[in-house]
């Protein structure tokens, strides 16, 4: 990717603006092209969500979805498709923009090797602010217990709009921020070193980018999976008693019988989803960046 800390230090001109714009464009394009796999594996994602919410096995979660029928299978698919494209645009573009700024202003203060991760942290923070409402709507729609009360996306928006930000659209903001900032920081910090190691095995640049994105996102998804489970449980319900993050975590941990195995239910499917989506996104993005460079 163009997020290389060895940017030349010079006054920013039209050429620099165009390069920054290309990072946003390439990030959005690569994520848009990966929406097809996202659409295909959405039933997998929904199965994981049911496991996170109801603490069920894969067989039980699939049985629930089968009984609900194919019409409801893709209920809630719109927010992740929109998020997927917009997230790529913002995440890759903003990370590259921040990296360029840090490379010229903090070169003597922060280690060059740490700059991509730091820029990723900043991009992840903005991502959390922008996309928490999308994730909130998605989780409400995917919870079958809301089908009667909130049958459509419009009804969900109207319901959340009437509530305070902290209990409405921005429910679960703190764990989302922790997950996104840590995830983005690790992704951009590890992607290039991982790609270099893989390329050293004699693989093509495209294959190296794909494997690098896959392995990096796989490790991150597994490490931060408990936060995703916490977010899903905090955001799936609308109304009722509003509990804080720690209270929700204690309830979740107790409901999983204080077992990591039960807490990580659905974790193997997260690996599958990460392999498909982030592997493709990383490969396409890196290829576009090298062509434009």
UniProtKB/TrEMBL annotation:
Annotated source species: Parambassis ranga (Indian glassy fish)
MF GO annotations: NAD transmembrane transporter activity
Pfam assignment, any one: Mito_carr
Family: Belongs to the mitochondrial carrier (TC 2.A.29) family.
Keyword Transport in record: yes
Membrane topology: Multi-pass membrane protein
Organism lineage: Eukaryota, Metazoa, Chordata, Craniata, Vertebrata
Gene Ontology CC terms, in alphabetical order: mitochondrial inner membrane
InterPro entries in the record: MCP_dom_sf, MCP_transmembrane, Mito_NAD+_Carrier
Transmembrane segments: 210-232, 260-285
Name assigned to this protein: Solute carrier family 25 member 53-like
Xref: PANTHER family: SD08549P (PTHR46131), SOLUTE CARRIER FAMILY 25 MEMBER 53 (PTHR46131:SF5)
Keywords for this protein: Membrane, Mitochondrion, Mitochondrion inner membrane, Repeat, Transmembrane, Transmembrane helix, Transport
Source taxon at top rank: Eukaryota
